[in-house]
Specification:
Number of helices: 14
Order of helices and strands: EHEHEHEHEHHHHHHHHHH
CATH class of the largest domain: Mainly Alpha
Shape: rod-shaped
Radius of gyration: 38 Å
Length: about 350
């Protein structure tokens, strides 16, 4: 066992700075000698007031603080340090010749990190100092790592937002191209996207799935750019051949966006939004759960907005009539579960509109 004044074997040299606060000159000198031999840079203070003055110009890595001091005692010094954001994380080891539980509890209350009793076991004291310095170093590294992670997360978020803006610009450019041919397509696409977003949110879709469905909703009719204007704007009932041309648009839409890498998961949603759950739809005659869920949602939203909007060949029908027709087609054209969600969403929307109207 090493005692103060004896030489302890060094395991490694460090350059950390320790502030020793001790009003007994002999003990302060012995501690300074011991710690310097262990490779520490030592600053001595004879009382609490001196310690606080020193701390205005110095920033130690650890403070060895005697409790019983002339004037301001160690508890007051510790409390002052631990309430200062600059020194809050500096480890404080309190020292006293009276090793009592009340003193330990009081020290812990004021933020002391450890407690050692006099006379010191030199080896134990040095081990405790090194332990707290290692803990402090680890905490600082964690703070640095946390800051770096926050910075990286912020950068990634900004890059993701920039990418999403770029993607939306691409999508709206594609939509603008087909809207130039038929101005109804743009408004229809936005209405359908809003309906799909509400339904998918109710059904618990995650952000990525919501985004894919939004993209699909906006672009589902882009293939109509290949449909002759004479067919799109025809006021009379379409002939069989003209219907066949119209029915090609989901496949054409899918092929138009195929080269765009971020839209790969959108392709099947668009391609199959005119499939029917009983297998009577197009282009591939899929049925039931063979049809992507997003496509089944898109199918309902698409049909509803088409029914309630004026078209060259017919007038819009009422909201109530459209809901009735969609409900009647549940299990044949439309997915029953999706229809139930849609009816619920539309009922809540109607209630909200009614309340808003009554309050205005």
């Amino acid at each position: 066992m090493c005692q103060i004044g004896e030489s302890c074997e060094r395991t490694y040299h460090v350059s950390e700075r320790i502030l020793v606060v001790e009003d007994h000159a002999g003990t302060l000198s012995l501690l300074t000698t011991l710690l310097q031999k262990e490779g520490f840079d030592v600053i001595g203070a004879g009382n609490g007031e001196d310690a606080l003055r020193i701390l205005k110009n110095e920033f130690p890595d650890l403070i060895l603080l005697d409790i019983i001091l002339t004037g301001m005692d160690g508890f007051d010094v510790c409390r002052t340090l631990k309430t200062d954001p600059l020194y809050r994380n500096v480890p404080v080891i309190m020292c006293t010749s009276k090793d009592t539980m009340p003193d330990r509890l009081k020290g812990a209350e004021f933020g002391a990190d450890d407690y050692v009793a006099k006379p010191f076991n030199n080896r134990d004291l040095v081990k405790r100092i090194r332990l707290h310095l290692r803990l402090k170093s680890m905490e600082e590294q964690l703070m640095i790592t946390g800051h770096e992670l926050q910075t990286a997360r912020k950068t990634l978020h900004e890059q993701t937002r920039a990418m999403e803006r770029s993607q939306l610009e691409t999508i709206h450019s594609l939509l603008a191209a087909v809207s130039a041919k038929d101005h109804n397509i743009g408004e229809h696409a936005q209405n359908v996207a809003d309906l799909c977003n509400t339904m998918a949110g109710t059904m618990g879709f995650d952000k990525r799935s919501l985004l894919n469905l939004q993209y699909a909703s906006i672009l589902h009719d882009i293939g109509k750019i290949a449909v002759p204007t004479s067919v799109l704007a025809k006021e009379n009932r379409l002939e069989k051949e003209e219907l066949e041309i119209i029915r090609r648009h989901p496949g054409i839409s899918a092929e138009i966006i195929r080269p765009i890498s971020f839209l790969q998961k959108v392709i099947p949603i668009i391609r199959h939004h005119h499939e029917n759950v009983d297998g009577s739809g197009y282009p591939d005659g899929l049925k039931g759960e063979e049809i992507p869920l997003e496509s089944r949602i898109l199918a309902v939203a698409d049909a509803y907005d088409a029914m309630t909007s004026n078209r060259p060949y017919r007038e819009a029908i009422t909201r109530e009539r459209a809901l009735t027709l969609i409900s009647e087609r549940a299990g044949t054209q439309f997915d029953t579960d999706v229809v139930n969600v849609f009816v619920e969403v539309m009922s809540e929307s109607a209630t909200a509109e009614s309340l808003a109207s009554s309050m205005s």
